[in-house]
Design goal:
Blueprint lengths: L1 H16 L16 E3 L6 E3 L4 H8 L5 E2 L6 E2 L2 H12 L4 E2 L6 E2 L2 H12 L4 E2 L6 E2 L2 H12 L4 E2 L6 E2 L2 H12 L4 E2 L6 E2 L2 H12 L4 E2 L6 E2 L2 H12 L4 E2 L6 E2 L2 H12 L4 E2 L6 E2 L2 H12 L4 E2 L6 E2 L2 H8 L8 E2 L6 E2 L2 H12 L4 E2 L6 E2 L2 H9 L8 H4 L10 E2 L3
Antiparallel strand pairs: 1-2, 3-4, 5-6, 7-8, 9-10, 11-12, 13-14, 15-16, 16-25, 17-18, 19-20, 21-22, 23-24
Length: about 400
């Protein structure tokens, strides 16, 4: 009877996929058989219930989130999704107490304590705690961008990046902060934003003890100690400590300005510049000093301001012992010892150790009033993220 039920299930699966079913007399061994789906050319075991198997290959999504309207094929997927809105985190790390909404995320987090990184890149030797991270990393070598936006044609290495990008066209921001009401296009941005309220900085540098609110910031910071700059511009050879800096830099060659202000029409090379610019229209100052209440439109301005309250100077020059409140101040100072002058005026040939000195010099040119994008062509980024390759 059990085998009859199983055969009936297989019949229905094969009929759904349009596959000719050949009877097998080996009874129980039928479970071990694999059915090949013509629609997706993927192999899978035939033990999955028919209804669930059908939804894998159809557009059927009967489970809808009442909070944002997103639909899912399975109730388990909806359950996981709802935790994004409720903030429920059932899975707690026994090592540090941090809690997560999914068991799989907890499993990945646990590896940060053990230091286990079993997945190694054959191209460069870099290791990862998850196979999916290795897969994503491999695309940085191959340059593969399999996910293309149908609206503008832009391609991405990851499907999640495409999903986030599509929201820049639709304006959808489904993830809202319950603390201040600010909305985001992806859950990770909401998580990171939440730390601006809680002050949580779980990622600490083992070299200097500085802590960060998200892992990517720590990774970038560590390169300030090691000097590693893995992202190189194929156009001019300049190297960068993070991929986003390379992407931004590439626009100085192409002149691309894809982000336009709807208020005044001014266009920008990257989204963060547009976000900051929009605040000049609406007067928004989201970064507030907890010491004195003064508010700023940029986080960098707040960081600089906070230093005026503290006498702490964590960045010390190894050459002379002089200490600074900001890393960028130390970087500028070090050039005094090395005689480095990376900012050169292409018109006059004069070189400067600081970007601001180059800016003042260019203004001395008769009748010239250059835009920031034009200034960038004179030397490395004034954010200190770019160093000319030697």
């Amino acid at each position: 009877m059990k085998n009859d039920s199983w055969s009936s299930m297989l019949e229905e699966i094969f009929e759904f996929h349009g596959i000719e079913h050949q009877h097998n007399n080996q009874g129980g061994h039928m479970r071990e058989k694999l059915c090949k789906c013509k629609a997706y050319e993927k192999r899978r075991t035939s033990s999955l219930p028919v209804t669930k198997h059908r939804r894998t290959y159809s557009e059927e999504r009967p489970y809808e989130c009442k909070e944002c309207g997103k639909t899912f094929s399975y109730v388990s997927s909806l359950t996981r999704h709802v935790r994004i809105h409720s903030g429920e985190r059932l899975f707690e790390c026994k090592k540090c107490g941090k809690a997560f909404s999914r068991s799989s995320i907890l499993a990945t987090h646990t590896q940060t304590h053990s230091g286990e990184r079993p997945y190694e890149c054959k191209q460069c030797g870099k290791t990862f705690s998850r196979s999916s991270n290795l897969t994503r990393h491999t695309r940085t070598h191959s340059g593969e961008r399999a996910y293309e936006c149908k609206v503008c044609g832009k391609a991405f290495r990851l499907s999640s990046h495409l999903t986030r990008h599509i929201r820049t066209h639709s304006g959808e921001r489904p993830y809202e902060c319950k603390e201040c009401g600010k909305a985001f296009s992806c859950s990770s941005s909401l998580t990171t934003h939440g730390r601006t309220h809680s002050g949580e900085k779980p990622y600490e540098c083992k070299e200097c003890g500085k802590a960060f609110s998200h892992s990517s910031a720590l990774t970038t910071h560590i390169r300030s100690h090691s000097g590693e700059r893995p992202y190189e511009c194929k156009e001019c050879g300049k190297a960068f400590i993070c991929s986003s800096s390379l992407t931004t830099h590439m626009r100085t060659h192409s002149g691309e300005r894809p982000y336009e202000c709807k208020e005044c029409g001014k266009a920008f090379s990257f989204s963060s510049s547009l976000t900051i610019h929009v605040r000049s229209h609406n007067g928004e100052r989201p970064y507030e000093c907890k010491e004195c209440g003064k508010a700023f439109s940029r986080s960098s301005h707040l960081r600089t301001h906070v230093g005026t309250h503290s006498e702490e100077r964590p960045y010390e020059c190894k050459e002379c012992g002089r200490a600074f409140k900001q890393f960028t101040q130390l970087t500028r100072h070090v050039r005094v010892h090395g005689g480095e002058k990376p900012y050169e005026c292409k018109k006059r040939g004069k070189a400067f150790s600081q970007f601001s000195h180059l800016t003042n010099h260019i203004k001395s040119h008769s009748g010239e009033n250059l835009h920031c994008s034009e200034l960038l062509s004179y030397g490395p980024s004034h954010h200190g993220l770019v160093t000319p390759t030697k």
